[in-house]
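Per your request, structure below.
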């Protein structure tokens, strides 16, 4: 489940010039300073991380991280659907079964945390999302993304990333909070990145976070690093 994040201003200015943002990813469980930061963000949002299923169960799970200089400022877990299923199956098995029955390959993003002291929180979120997309869609061939978010942040993710609510919110016993299922087709994400990526000057016009994604050349270089 995504922890609670502070909503951005409706018409955000261009991202501030801060420390260089470095993105990385690795297979395995969330651990060390990445888990510590996620725990802090969950506690800040009134959630319990102790009951959250850790990454690393299926062999096709990746933890993406973002750093500003030496400081870790963001994490995101990417989980490919498989025998062990997805975290969202606990509450939304029927909804996921409908997509699976139609032959749709699912992927789940979770464990998202952006440090409250980050100099560029919009950029951190956009780049983590882009990196997760590269793993899920471009490497693994997943066709649809699912996430669980707190209901009061549905509007945020719908507006800034284009995710759509797919079910009535339900109580999630893993984090002791309500959860809403949201989803987006990765083909739509790809269209938005191709249209806006690498054009931060159009952030106001686009009214979404995709202008903060990488441009085509940088995306290709990042994808090559993941191969």
């Amino acid at each position: 489940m995504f922890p609670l994040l502070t909503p951005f201003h409706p018409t955000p200015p261009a991202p501030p010039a801060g420390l260089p943002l470095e993105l990385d990813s690795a297979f395995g469980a969330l651990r060390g300073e990445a888990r510590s930061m996620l725990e802090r963000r969950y506690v800040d949002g009134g959630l319990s991380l102790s009951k959250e299923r850790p990454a690393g169960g299926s062999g096709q799970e990746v933890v993406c991280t973002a750093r500003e200089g030496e400081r870790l400022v963001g994490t995101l877990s990417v989980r490919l659907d498989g025998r062990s299923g997805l975290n969202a199956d606990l509450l939304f098995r029927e909804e996921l079964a409908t997509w699976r029955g139609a032959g749709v390959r699912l992927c789940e993003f979770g464990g998202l945390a952006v440090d409250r002291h980050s100099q560029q929180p919009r950029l951190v979120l956009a780049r983590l999302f882009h990196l997760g997309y590269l793993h899920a869609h471009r490497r693994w061939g997943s066709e649809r993304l699912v996430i669980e978010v707190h209901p009061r942040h549905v509007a945020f993710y719908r507006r800034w990333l284009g995710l759509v609510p797919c079910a009535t919110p339900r109580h999630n016993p893993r984090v002791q909070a309500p959860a809403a299922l949201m989803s987006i087709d990765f083909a739509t994400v790809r269209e938005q990145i191709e249209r806006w990526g690498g054009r931060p000057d159009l952030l106001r016009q686009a009214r979404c976070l995709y202008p903060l994604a990488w441009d085509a050349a940088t995306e290709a270089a990042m994808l090559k690093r993941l191969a």
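The helical segments are 32-44, 89-101, 121-139, 154-161, 186-196, 203-206, 216-226.

Regards,
D.
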